[in-house]
Amino acid sequence: MAGDGAQHDGTARGAGTGEVDADLLGASALLTEEELGWQRRVREFVAARIAPVVDADFEDRHFRRELVRELGELGVLGMHLRGHGCAGAGAVSYGLACMELEAGDSAWRTFVSVQGSLAMSAIARFGTAEQQEQWLPAMAAGRAIGCFGLTEPGAGSDPAAMTTTARRDGGDWVLDGRKRWIGLGSVADVVVLWARAEDGVRGFLVPTSAPGFSAHDIDNKLSLRASVQCELHLDSVRLPAEAALPGAVGLRAPFSCLGEARYGIVWGVLGPARECIAAAVRHARRRQVFGKALAELQLTQAKVADMVVEHQKALLLALHLGRLKEAGTLTPAQVSVGKLNNVREALEIARTARTILGGDGVTSDYPVMRHMANLESVRTYEGTDEVHTLVVGHAVTGLRAFS
Predict the structure, then answer these.
(1) CB burial class (10 A; 0-12, 13-18, 19+) of residue 212?
(2) Which sign, positive or negative, has the C-alpha torsion 262, 135, 88, 256?
(3) Euclidean distance between CA atoms 377 and 362, whole angstroms
(4) Which residues does the UniProt record annotate as the domain Acyl-CoA dehydrogenase/oxidase C-terminal (predicted)?
(5) CA of 121: how far to CAs of 107, 126, 245, 395, in Å?
(6) Can you give the residue range of the structural domain that contains 308?
């Protein structure tokens, strides 16, 4: 990474080596060789292709589209899916890939999540064989980009209130409405779009070249600036009958895709948290205050210890959820626990790291403020803290606090 957020080895190291210990509890011993291989390959890609340019891309609001095909070659696009050129990797391998990508920048884990966990998962689960063959191989290779159009200007956490409509006109579908905060909307080739039809919410594959479709970048973001988020406009977009995803009727369909993306977030945010800790510790070792290293002060060590303890707990939580997912027993409430806890703790780690860095912590000499700003978006999308809190509350009490 840039500055003091330089990429580092994830294996445990002694304090005297000059490296920052990223695996204090030895969690790497719980990983298979295949999982470690995925982590290593993605980490190397991030160090070579993302880290050298990400600060400039964040500053310039630049989405580096040429990396899309390279990510396809790396095998991480739809890597949890099988067939159609997808890697068929395990849940923990996917999680580790998300962690390493987000250690570079949340924009790139977001891209992989939107492409694979949302758009590709929807097509794989609910599409016809023809739809899958048309889109999945190209998306896995990075030759085509997909996005996921669910949230609306007036219905973020409440997709049941969506106003985008799909009506039949002869043998066609006609779609009208607006979507907002749609990742990749203006660079996508196809939108997995959700609209209200007579028989309930349905999913459609909308080519972005369709007449009446337009995507407008949200340019005034102070977060995820190296990514693309848009507002989509659908003005009498006419689609053939075969554009509908036949298996996607009702909100359970998009919610299942959101669960995939939320799982990736549980792992992903561990990456920026790790980089913030590393930046703070390296700085504290060098910085001299009151005649000694900042890292020698008890209050500094208390901050470091708190950050590391929470990071390691979050890592073990992610690994546990990954094993549950591989066993086929992971529940939505368990994913909510992971998303709620790990994003919240990652943000607290970033804020604590900034205090150790002092005034310099708000500059681009360190990656901490960039990660902190990005994590504010991650905290909001794929379910806010409030939503996940109520999901967990319902799971424990058996009573719903929301409709």
Answers:
(1) middle
(2) positive
(3) 18
(4) 250-395
(5) 19, 8, 12, 26
(6) 269-397
pLDDT at 333 over 90: yes
Q: Clarify whether 275 is annotated catalytic.
A: no
Rounded mean pLDDT, 374-399: 95
Residues 5, 366 contacting (CB under 8 angstroms): yes
**Of 152, 310, 345, 382, which is the active-site residue?**
382
The phi and psi torsions of 293 (rounded to 5 degrees) equal -65, 140
- Which tens digit of pLDDT belongs to each residue from 6-35? 433 333 333 333 567 778 999 999 999 999
Alpha helices in 217-297 (DSSP H): 252-268, 270-286
**What pLDDT band is residue 155 in, cutting at 50, 70 and 90?**
confident
Domain check: are 390 and 296 in the same one? yes
CB-based contact 77:140 (threshold 8 Å): yes
* Number of domains forming the structure of the chain: 3
Residues 6+ apart with CB under 8 A from 66: none
The single residue listed with the structure tokens 């009446």 is 212
Report CA Rg, the chain: 21
